[in-house]
Amino acid sequence: MKLAVIPARGGSKRLVRKNVRPLLGRSLIRRTVEKALSSGDFDRVIVSTEDEEIAEEARSCGAEVPFVRPAELASDEAASVDVLCHAVGQLVLPDDFCHTIVCLLQTTSPLISVESLKQSLRVFENGNFNSLSTMCEAFQHHEWLFIKENDSEKVHPMFPEKFNLPTRQLQKSYIENGAVYIVKADWLMKHGSLYDLSNHGTFLMSRKESIDIDTQEDWDLAEYYLGKEEAHG
Q1: Please, how many CA atoms are within 13 Å of residue 194, restricted to the half-sphere of its CB?
Q2: Can you give the residue ranges of every domain in the chain?
Q3: Which H helix or E strand runs over 37?
Q4: Could you give the 3-state DSSP secondary structure of residue 16?
Q5: Tens digits of pLDDT across the chain (233 residues)
Q6: Quick one: DSSP state of residue 139?
Q7: First CA to last CA across the chain, in angstroms?
Q8: DSSP sequence for 185-221
Q9: Cβ pair 181, 123 in contact under 8 A
């Protein structure tokens, strides 16, 4: 079974009620649910929330909301992996963990395409990974980072032996974009982790698809790119 779990709590602080706030006419939760359903890859699309308005919005666009997320898993301190473990524990029998793939989808990544979602699942399955997270190429080279000396204004390179290397000699590096996490349910429930770092894969996405909404500036940027996409069909 392939299970999509979409966490969406009601208590966001920086952007109040962002999960049900219209982004060019469609809420973040609606956009995420519709993409999961459109992919055709999931046996069930589940929204985990403690908020009735979010639950109603999720149901209205075809997701299941089979349980109310406990209050302790809806706080600022709650970890996504705990939310995911709770969902799997509610929905999957222990004997079926080894036959279940769990995909965590974040509502805050509204520019991910259905095709990228599908391809991330293909990479996970074809690579026989235990875990996978979507990433984009890092545009800041760690070889060029500086660190400060205590509270002074003096700085020095973190990697002085590499600081003067030209760009062509620097190794490419990648950073998670927070859009999609995929993990085998048996690994998740046994280790309480989204990562098997000895067998972890990735699907690379563009910087545009990797926009992650956390602030109003992020929202405005996502609105700009989505507006361009939707204007061109």
Answers
A1: 19
A2: 2-136+175-228, 139-172
A3: helix 28-39
A4: coil
A5: 999 999 999 988 788 899 999 999 999 999 999 999 999 999 999 999 999 999 999 999 999 999 999 999 999 889 999 999 999 999 999 999 999 999 999 999 999 999 999 999 999 999 999 999 999 999 888 888 899 988 888 999 988 888 888 888 888 899 999 999 999 999 999 999 999 999 999 999 999 999 999 999 999 999 999 999 887 76
A6: S
A7: 33
A8: HHHHHHHS-S--TTSEEEEE--TTTT----SHHHHHH
A9: no
C-alpha 83/C-alpha 68 separation (Å) is: 11
**Matching residue, tokens 């500036």:** 217
Q: Is 57 exposed, middle or buried (0-12, 13-18, 19+ CB in 10 A)?
A: buried
**Fold category of 2-136+175-228 in CATH:** Spore Coat Polysaccharide Biosynthesis Protein SpsA; Chain A (3.90.550)
Phi-psi region of 25 (alpha: psi -120 to 50; beta: other; left: phi over 0): left
Tokens for 167, please give them: 């760009």
Selection from 10, 85, 19 nearest residue 50 by Cα? 10
Strand pairing report for 155-157 and 146-148? antiparallel
